[in-house]
Amino acid sequence: MTVDRRRFHLASLAALTAPAGLTAASTIATPRDPQAAGLPTATIDGSEHGFRVLGADDFVNVNCHEDTWKWTGDFVHCTGNPVGVIRSKKPYTNFELVCEWRHLRDAGNSGIFLWSPIESLDRLKGPGLPEGIEVQVLDLGYTAAYERGGNKADWFTCHGDVFPVGGSTMKPFPPTAPNGRRSFPTEDRSRGVGEWNHYYVRAINGEVRLWVNGREVSGGSDCNPRAGYLCLESEGSPVEFRGLRLRELP
Q1: Strand, helix or coil at 95?
Q2: Is the N end or the C end of the chain the one with fewer CB atoms within 10 Å?
Q3: In the chain, at which residue ranges do the beta strands (DSSP E only) sit?
Q4: Of the candidates 135, 106, 103, the residue with the CA atom closest to the CA atom of residue 202
Q5: What is the pLDDT of residues 87-100, one digit of tens each?
Q6: Domains of the chain
Q7: Which residues have CB under 8 Å from 171's CB, separation 6+?
Q8: DSSP letter at 176?
Q9: 51 in Cβ contact with 246 (< 8 Å)
Q10: What is the pTM assigned to this prediction?
Q11: Residue 119 carries which DSSP code?
Q12: Rounded CA separation 93/218 (Å)
């Protein structure tokens, strides 16, 4: 009998994080997600033991304008200009990250960088992006906008790609992009412009796994680098993040 590797991992993770007195099954239901009705879902929302809130005091500007990012508690609005990032004040190796995001304009583009090396960040003196492992944050309208230019949108998706940037490397989980570098999601779960999406990211021992709106969809192993800074990306369109929570792991 074959075993669904991702579903087994999800069930094990739910059992580990279930509060005292609850079974794993009782943590595998997300009423906020109508797409997942009756299906197994990850309910990790950052309220579990060990998670802490991330806000303005946890990040520093790298190559954005002073007004690109505006924080209110664990909510942050990004104008999208210029193209650049803010990074965490401290590097991380093994951790879990929870957040929600939404694009405010059709075809918006953004992302979350994991394990960005400080050398790559220090080189950013103008607009640009660092190396590291990117968890894509892309609006559903991006595909149509891209194809209006006469190009075929077969090398990316809008539902949670995970991929290495620049000289970084990763062995992507299937299905993969035609060039073999990106992990494509196993399901289309992202919601459109103006709607909130929930991401749960688990990054441990050089392996990244992404859950989109309650279901694991993509990731990769053998990542290089596997330690570094967490970055939020500004890439030309207004985007908002909220509920940023992080839990460091051994």
Answers
A1: strand
A2: N
A3: 52-53, 59-61, 69-72, 75-78, 84-88, 95-103, 109-116, 132-138, 162-165, 169-172, 197-204, 207-212, 215-224, 229-234, 239-248
A4: 135
A5: 999 999 999 999 99
A6: 45-248 (2.60.120.560)
A7: 220, 221, 222
A8: B
A9: yes
A10: 0.85
A11: H
A12: 19
